[in-house]
Write a sequence for this structure.
């Protein structure tokens, strides 16, 4: 188990003339579960693929401890990027059997756990003799999860692992992930659109918006700072006067806003407005939705 | 420890209160082992650090204590401690909100007191 941090320093990435990541810097600590959230096209997959050296950065560098990750076999033996599998007829993967795919994975990942793979194949009811093209979307998600868990890599990235799964399979996945995490203390980065379900798993959260990292820090402290305030228009305006407001909405005489508090600030309680905590998904919508503040960049705490 | 988590409140506070509830209701007895942070994490599908934060609040209030290498245990006197604490916050938690709501509905103090007096023990519905 490595005790090294995985760091990204100012990584940018352009595809042709379009820059999709803008100077992203972050530090992943060993032994944490991170959530990576962002809208479609925000750059999540590009970021994860650069962190795992499956893609190159146009600028900036990724290091594990003091060593670069790019073309470094030692560093890469600690990193696994389990991509979402998209099998199309021409992808070259479609005619490969599941057991062959797992054999390739076992060669790629130095610390591969073959007995765990056999156990998960049974638990997930996956037939290793089937071709990948014969597997349903849910089964392909299970393959992604299986590869991620069995890689035993210290830093494991799961890209949309829950997307194809039904709600019961997702709950099983969260438990499986926690089992592995509590036993080994590996670091996981989980990208997901099903935010509220997975929010309680994420010790820290990384929020990507249009290629920029707008928040990186404790999930709990972000949630402790965000509130939904509603009431009569003039009361709400008075209660949140001078505070950082996101996503204001009015409806008749009523108004609601999301508020992002800075340290030491509070919402005045003399105006009889209702103040409610927000779920991570609501916070995400306020920060990244169309009406969200485009200059938004909450400081990590 | 079988209550459901809600979105209304921080998860670590809910974990803390659920353990307190279990102690109050004799589901967890004094000097008995409290579920570990890893057990709580798996039970509720939450991050172990969140569960630990809840447990640590209980340690700070001396409701549970740590036996090195074995786990967390319910302290002697924990139940009475929780009762005393909740009795103290009873006004803020229940009465204040009750009075505000009653006031906005035009229910007088006298009517409130009658409702309370006429309610059967065990919290059965007030019969109007």
């Amino acid at each position: 188990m490595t005790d090294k941090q995985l760091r990204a320093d100012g990584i940018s990435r352009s595809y042709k003339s379009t820059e999709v990541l803008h100077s992203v810097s972050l530090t992943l600590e060993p032994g944490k579960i991170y959530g990576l959230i962002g809208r479609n096209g925000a750059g999540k997959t590009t970021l994860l693929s650069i962190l795992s050296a499956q893609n190159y950065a146009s600028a900036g560098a990724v290091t594990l401890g003091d060593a670069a990750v790019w073309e470094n076999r030692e560093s890469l033996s600690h990193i696994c990027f389990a991509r979402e599998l998209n099998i199309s007829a021409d992808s070259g993967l479609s005619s490969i059997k599941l057991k062959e795919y797992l054999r390739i994975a076992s060669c790629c990942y130095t610390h591969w756990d073959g007995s765990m793979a056999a156990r998960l194949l049974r638990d997930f009811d996956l037939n290793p003799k089937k071709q990948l093209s014969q597997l349903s979307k849910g089964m392909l998600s299970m393959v992604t999860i299986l590869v991620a868990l069995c890689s035993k890599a210290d830093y494991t990235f799961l890209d949309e692992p829950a997307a194809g799964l039904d709600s019961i399979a997702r709950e099983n996945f969260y438990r499986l992930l926690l089992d592995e995490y509590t036993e080994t203390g590996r670091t996981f980065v989980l990208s997901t659109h099903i935010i509220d379900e997975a929010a309680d798993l994420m010790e820290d959260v990384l929020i990507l918006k249009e290629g920029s990292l707008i928040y990186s820090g404790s999930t709990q402290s972000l949630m402790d700072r965000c509130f939904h305030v509603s009431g009569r228009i003039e009361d709400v305006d008075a209660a949140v006067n001078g505070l950082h407001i996101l996503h204001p909405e009015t409806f008749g005489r009523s108004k609601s806003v999301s508020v992002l508090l800075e340290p030491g600030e509070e919402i005045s309680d003399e105006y009889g407005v209702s103040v409610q905590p927000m779920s991570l998904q609501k916070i995400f919508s306020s920060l990244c939705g169309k009406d969200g503040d485009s200059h938004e960049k909450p400081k990590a705490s | 420890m079988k209550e459901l988590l809600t979105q209304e409140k921080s998860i670590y506070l809910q974990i803390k209160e659920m353990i307190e509830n279990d102690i109050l209701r004799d589901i967890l007895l004094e000097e008995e082992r409290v579920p570990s942070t890893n057990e709580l994490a798996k039970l509720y599908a939450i991050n172990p650090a969140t569960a630990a934060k809840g447990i640590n609040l209980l340690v700070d209030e001396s409701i549970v204590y740590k036996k090195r290498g074995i786990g967390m245990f319910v302290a002697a006197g924990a139940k009475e401690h929780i009762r005393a604490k909740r009795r103290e916050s009873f006004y803020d938690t229940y009465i204040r909100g009750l009075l505000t709501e009653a006031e906005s509905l035009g229910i007088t103090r006298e009517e409130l007191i009658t409702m309370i007096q006429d309610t059967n023990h065990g919290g059965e519905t007030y019969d109007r």
